[in-house]
């Protein structure tokens, strides 16, 4: 036994550095010579070879290791699994491979009682977040826990993934979580100030993008934490002036996603993404007005002012606003308008809670009731269609920097202005990097 251990120890460093560097053949040869090496763990952190491979994104090595082991959920010293580390470091291929190998998404570490979903949200890896949420829909978790319970899963201090994403200025993750049913007004237990909502945490983190997202999803500016403070007071306390301007209860409200409407709940993914983006766009314009009238003047939004880029020649202009291209079609009557106009229609006709008589929006052209909304397909340009795929649309903001001036975005004016705004919020994303290190 003693002899075996010393033999193993001499291999240890070689193994882990080979795994870390992705030396597939070397690791394979070591595993062939001594299969027990794969259950080895590092001295201090108790990391296995799988942890090291997952954290470093060494997908080939990880794949080979998974083929040779029964259990993808090996623990390190803090009961973190390889899946948690892959989600923490944003190694999407490893996240996908581990899930495919049957890794459990519903395990909690012993540091803060967090799951892989918490890690993806905290570190802002939206691709990993989506992948884990997709798994929650299709794996036994859905049956044992239910999807909506999983989205709102709490760590030891009562923080949901949405709380963490809002606190860390991860607006893409905030958006994904909200659109998958995260509770916008959930209060934390002991995380940050007791009783904080995601809006309190976004106010503290100073992310306009997160504040805007949360308000668009119906976050309540008047909800108080356990000390009786509304998010506005938190923003003032932490000198987040721009957020404070939006959170001021006296400022005009942003448009809220009209989720009570049946046809909004039943939108196909493509139309949903289109309208969600239009809502954000509309709110950015409102926000611009709010920020410009408030006393301070530093505003990344104000910089983004500019003329709408030229309309595409092969799309029809919206007959309501005469500004944007028709992107949405009302089913049955076939009337078309831009996403912003249909949203304005829906947001102004919210069901009245007191009378409970929902006044449903109707087609502004023929007054027929709206049963379904579809995305207008651009027939003359098959290229455009590929840009409409839900996957691409979901990434609009992530991709915005890459797509500066790209012709494909000029075809769709809501998106062309979107990419401009994305660029201008560069300041915000630079600030968020500094925050990342602080737990
Ligand atoms: Zn319009
Ligand atoms: Zn109509």
TrEMBL record:
PROSITE patterns: ANK_REP_REGION, ANK_REPEAT, ZF_RING_1, ZF_RING_2. Gene3D superfamilies: Ankyrin repeat-containing domain, Zinc/RING finger domain, C3HC4 (zinc finger). Residues 405-439 are annotated as: Disordered. Residues 406-426 have a biased composition (Low complexity). InterPro entries: Ankyrin_rpt, Ankyrin_rpt-contain_sf, RING_XB3-like, Znf_RING, Znf_RING/FYVE/PHD, Znf_RING_CS. Its EC number is 2.3.2.27. GO terms for molecular function: ubiquitin protein ligase activity; zinc ion binding. Residues 429-439 have a biased composition (Basic and acidic residues). It holds the Pfam family RING_XB3-XBAT31. It catalyses: S-ubiquitinyl-[E2 ubiquitin-conjugating enzyme]-L-cysteine + [acceptor protein]-L-lysine = [E2 ubiquitin-conjugating enzyme]-L-cysteine + N(6)-ubiquitinyl-[acceptor protein]-L-lysine. It is an enzyme of class 2 (transferase). The keyword Metal-binding applies. Residues 318-367 form the RING-type domain. ANK repeats lie at residues 45-77, 78-110, 157-189, 194-226. Keywords: ANK repeat, Metal-binding, Repeat, Transferase, Ubl conjugation pathway, Zinc, Zinc-finger. Pathway: Protein modification; protein ubiquitination. This is RING-type E3 ubiquitin transferase.
């Amino acid at each position: 036994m003693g002899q075996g251990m010393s033999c193993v120890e001499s291999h240890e460093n070689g193994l882990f550095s080979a795994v870390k560097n992705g030396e597939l053949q070397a690791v394979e040869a070591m595993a062939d010579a001594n299969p027990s090496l794969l259950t080895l763990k590092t001295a201090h952190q108790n990391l296995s070879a799988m942890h090291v491979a997952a954290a470093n994104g060494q997908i080939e090595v990880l794949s080979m290791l998974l083929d040779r082991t029964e259990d993808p959920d090996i623990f390190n010293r803090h009961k973190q699994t390889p899946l948690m580390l892959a989600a923490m470091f944003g190694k999407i291929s490893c996240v996908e491979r581990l899930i495919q190998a049957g890794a459990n998404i519903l395990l909690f570490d012993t540091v803060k009682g967090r799951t892989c979903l918490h890690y993806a949200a905290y570190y802002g890896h939206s691709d990993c977040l989506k992948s884990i949420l997709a798994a929650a829909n299709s794996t036994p978790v859905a049956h044992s826990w239910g999807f909506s319970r999983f989205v709102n899963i709490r760590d030891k201090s009562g923080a949901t993934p949405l709380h963490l994403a809002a606190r860390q200025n991860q607006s893409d993750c905030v958006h994904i979580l909200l659109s998958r049913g995260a509770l916008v007004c959930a209060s934390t237990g002991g995380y940050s100030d007791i009783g904080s909502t995601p809006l309190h945490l976004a106010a503290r983190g100073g992310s306009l993008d997160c504040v805007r997202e949360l308000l668009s999803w119906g976050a309540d500016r008047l909800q108080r934490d356990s000390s009786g403070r509304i998010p506005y007071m938190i923003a003032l306390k932490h000198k987040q002036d721009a957020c404070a301007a939006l959170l001021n209860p006296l400022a005009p409200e942003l448009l809220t996603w009209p989720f009570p409407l049946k046809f909004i709940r039943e939108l196909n993914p493509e139309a949903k993404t289109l309208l969600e983006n239009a809502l954000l766009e509309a709110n950015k314009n409102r926000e611009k007005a709010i920020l410009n009238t408030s006393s301070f003047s530093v505003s990344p939004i104000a910089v983004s002012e500019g003329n709408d880029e030229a309309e595409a020649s092969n799309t029809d202009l919206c007959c309501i606003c005469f500004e944007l291209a028709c992107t949405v079609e009302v089913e049955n009557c076939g009337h078309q308008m831009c996403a912003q106009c249909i949203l304005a229609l829906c947001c102004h006709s919210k069901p009245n809670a007191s009378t409970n008589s929902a006044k449903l929006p109707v087609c502004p052209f023929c007054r027929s009731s709206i049963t379904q909304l579809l995305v207008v397909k651009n027939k003359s340009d098959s290229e455009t269609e590929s840009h409409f795929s839900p996957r691409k649309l979901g990434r609009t903001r992530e991709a915005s920097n890459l797509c500066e001036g790209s012709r494909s975005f000029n075809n769709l004016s809501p998106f062309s202005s979107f990419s401009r705004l994305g660029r201008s919020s560069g300041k915000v994303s630079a600030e968020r990097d500094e925050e990342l290190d602080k737990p």
